[in-house]
Amino acid sequence: MSLRCFAAAIALSLFLSGCLTTVPDIETPRTGSVQTRQQIANGIQSPRIDSDGVLLTPWVRSAMMSAFAMRAAHLGLRFDPNGVPVTIRITSVRSKSDTARIAFNFLDGAEWVSGTVTVGDASFDIQEDTWLYWMPTGYRSIQEVADAVGTQVANGVALVAGMPLND
Q: 121-133: per-residue pLDDT in tens?
């Protein structure tokens, strides 16, 4: 492989890995009221995670919340204990044991986190798995999936508020 082809492959991998954090698609009937948009601009509460009986390990929860906090700060979302409540309802999680992850890598199937986020009277779905772009960028870890979901939540809250997602 020539150096030029190798550099192109690296650039493509970096580009696609930058796309791993997606912006949620918020359906029109679920966008919320004008009052919700205005209230979000004044502040939101720290998200509450409702796993509804789904096993969500503490480190996945922590990674998700950390990624949310970093992205929210980047977007300029304000936190206020009396602000608009944000609830992340986890509907499905698959996380393998470390032994299975080491022994079988991607042969044991994908890991994922999915759910629904409610902010005021608006809601949107979130979902991420380890298979996204796995051929060009390599197999992702559940840590990267949790980070992507936390970022999706922050992006979705900003979209509901009508804020730009400038990077």
A: 889 998 887 655 5
Q: Quick one: angle between helices 58-75 and 142-161, nearest 10?
A: 40
Q: How far apart are CA 54 and CA 75, in angstroms?
A: 30
Distance CA 27, CA 33 (A): 13
CA atoms of 120 and 45, how far apart (whole Å): 10
More confident residue, 68 or 108: 68
pTM of the predicted model as reported, rounded to 2 decimal places: 0.75
**What angle is formed at CA 111 by the lines to CA 154 and CA 23, rounded to 5 degrees?**
25
Residues whose CB falls within 8 Å of the CB of residue 31, separated by 6 or more in sequence, listed in order: 122, 160
DSSP secondary-structure letter at 77? -
Contact between 106 and 134 under an 8 Å Cβ cutoff? The reply is yes
How big is the CA angle at 60 (ends 54 and 61), to the nearest 5 degrees?
75
Tokens of 143: 């840590």
Q: Which of 91, 79, 80, 66 is nearest to 147 (CA)?
A: 66
Structure tokens at 52: 């509804």
Cα dist. 160→4, 133, 140 in Å?
Answer: 43, 27, 29
Residue 96 DSSP one-character state: -
Other CB atoms within a 10 A radius of the CB of residue 4 amount to: 8
